[in-house]
Records
---
Amino acid sequence: MGLILELTHRCPLQCAYCSNPLTLDAPKSELGADEWKRVLDEAAALGVLQVHFSGGEPVARRDLVELVAHASGRGLYTNIITSGVLLTEAAMASLLAAGIDHIQLSFQDAEVAEADRLGGYRGGHAKKLEAAKRIREAGLPLTANFVVHRQNVDRVEAMIALGEALGADRIEIAHVQYYGWGLLNRSALLPMPDQLEHCTAAVQAARTRLKGVLTIDYVVPDYYAARPKACMGGWGKLFINVSPSGKALPCHAAETLQGFTFPSVRDQALADIWATSDAFTRFRGDSWMPDPCKSCDRREIDWGGCRCQALAIAGDAASVDPACALSPDHDLMRQAIDQARDASPALTPRRLAGV
């Protein structure tokens, strides 16, 4: 269904919860415009419906407009996932001319000082507000993404109010998912039970109040779950993620998995990668599942949960996702919450010299 192109790991922001890998791809390793165009051609031939230009910050690529135009010309629905800080008036005009269909704009908070602190970019929040205005004035649908965690979740009502004020068609309240930099900073980011309860109640109240006006998506932290989520809709089932250097991945965090050789779109056709590569077939479907997954009546609902989380928490990518209450490692989630309770709020920012 979807192709996620991480065009670059370059980004002006330094968010401590970023899902990018700790070892970021250097600019010199990035695919060139012609290589990305070939990937888009192969995606269209494969039947992909949507292409999501992501990063890092996709607007940092000087050829983004060229790539959007190429994707649009191939009949693909085009979406940009951006921090907005580089989305100038000129950039917006160029993207509109190229045929962009949708823009997702990320926010770190509703409070200016905290938003700039969490993003590590002074003046960033003001630029985001300007970007939101440009998106709406252009007549494009706007999705406002708010990533929430222990250090900002108490302001969730203000975030929803900001999304309303900006004229968003959709608001996403997404708790940090603990991969990449988020996992590194987990103890400083995991919300406490009372915070999660407050956030959930606030979202439910806003959904009731705004029904028929705008949609609010809500992503909860797996550490409080009783059942796992269908990560990316199931391993190798709906999405292909391509890293800046061309690695084809079934999800953003898959590079953390040991024992895999992820194919490169520089060397193999997208259709072959999707259909035959071990990277996409090993955990596809349910034949790989251990007990109790393989006998569970939810196995074709959650598809075994998250393999990256199973590795990060339980130490084995093929084990039961610890988010599941039936996992022998489920208590490790509770232990992580307990460890975070009195942890320092200090954050390690996403940063790499020269990127």
Note: The first strand starts at residue 2 and ends at 6.
---
Amino acid sequence: MSELPVTNSKNNSPQVHRILGIDPGLANTGFGIIDYCNGRYKMICYGCISTDSKAPHGERLLTIYNRLYSIIQEFKPEQAGMETLYFAKNVSSAMGVAEARGVVTLCLAQNCIKLGEYTPNQIKAAVTGTASADKELVEKYVKIILGLEIEPKPDHAADALAGAITHIHYGIR
């Protein structure tokens, strides 16, 4: 892929937007960073912040915070996109996701990063064109949109990239 143009406000060069996508979870928090300029996407990095299920609860949340803080310091995103919390059948896992979302939201706020939150259907529609898409279709479209050779893994990272793409569609200002 060719390089995106560098931002230069003096000569009205196109602005590059660096967006962080987050898929929060206590065990695994996916992240993905995308640059966007003039209708073009460039995947910068993606991955997963994993925590040890045997570690004390507070340490797991601190691990998420510290790793996300490091990612923000290294890549300097200007905005972020994350899926809203939806009701789940498993209340204990929903609580872990809610706590992880809180840690992520705090870290973003402390770094003055604007956060856009999107429903699962908004993310599916933004990435695939249909709110009824399954996970596999979303992953395939993430690969296509970003011009990747393979679908991003693990699933949490692919979901985070989908969150960043959605923010590009709905939230960049």
Note: The chain is about 45% helix and 20% strand.
---
Amino acid sequence: MKKLYIIFTLLLVAGIGSGIYYFTEYRQSKMEFPKDAVLQTQWGDPYTYRHLTPKVRLIEFMYTQCPDICPNTTFQMKQLRDRLEKEGVFGSKVEFLTVSFDPDRDTKEVLDRYAQTFEINKSKGWYLLSGEKKDVQSLADHLNFQYRDPGTGQFVHSSATYLLDANNRVIEVFGMGEKDFNQKKVYKKIMRAI
């Protein structure tokens, strides 16, 4: 009977370990950019994932009418960008992508105001992206980011930002908002990755 408990315990530990590996490492390593999706930058230029220059990228999904974690995360990314500029790596080795998943309301004019508010256009290397719903959805699906409008215009969405290495593989998933987007941790991970 004692052997049976030991075997059961070992199988349980192995199962839990496999589950943790799947959700933290394996699934994350399979996240990638969709090769067929094309988005548009805040300047109206196409942004495709086919021939990207090797850079470390931080990706944030948001919508401009979000009342809390989206603008807070963008604000923290602005502070992080300023710090990376002082290090001389922003734009040349590090790039930020902020992707709106509400293209119906986040028009070019709305995105322009958002970019001005958070000084996204202050320097090269930060792209505010939007596009057709299917292309935004394709990117979100490839990164396991969930969002939906319950009919109120206030989206329910995942709370995740993604750090990709120079080969465009997800190496870390961070939270969003004041409590879950830790600038110091993100900064350290970016500096290690470049």
Note: Residues 174 and 185 are 9 Å apart (CA to CA).
---
Amino acid sequence: MNHLKVWVRASVVLGCAAVLAAGCTNRQQARMQQQAAQPQQQAHHAQQGTNPGAQPYQNTARKIDIADAAASKIVSEVPEVHSANVLVTERTAYVASMLKNNQALTQDIENRIGEKVRATDANIQRVYVSVNPDFVGRVNTYVEDVRAGRPAAGFVQGFADLARRVFPTAR
């Protein structure tokens, strides 16, 4: 008789544990499915330019243009600059630049680069300049791909992510 009570109690405890485990597993699976769906929704919103919590460069990254005139003006009129590529998303320009003689990017150089970009397009309100090798390499690859006629699909979202990393305090 004593063994029967032990078996009943053990069965009840194990049954409760099984029910709790199943409930937690379902809740965890639901949470994982929700998290998996979130990046897809954010990617969709970013492509549409309507991501409500996005930084300015994410909202404007529906279309990216290569500003060759601005890049040429920078290289020819800012003596410290060896090379530059300029990408424009609506009213924001991103300059990927290499400076001569391992020179550091100073506020003065950055301001002069911004002036040259704005001189080529009066609609540009913000100019972000980077000499970060990763940023410069990615922008150069994008420009080369576009000029070679390769599809640049997927670059818009990738560029928004890259810009967020390179310019984290952009407003």
Note: The chain is about 60% helix and 15% strand.
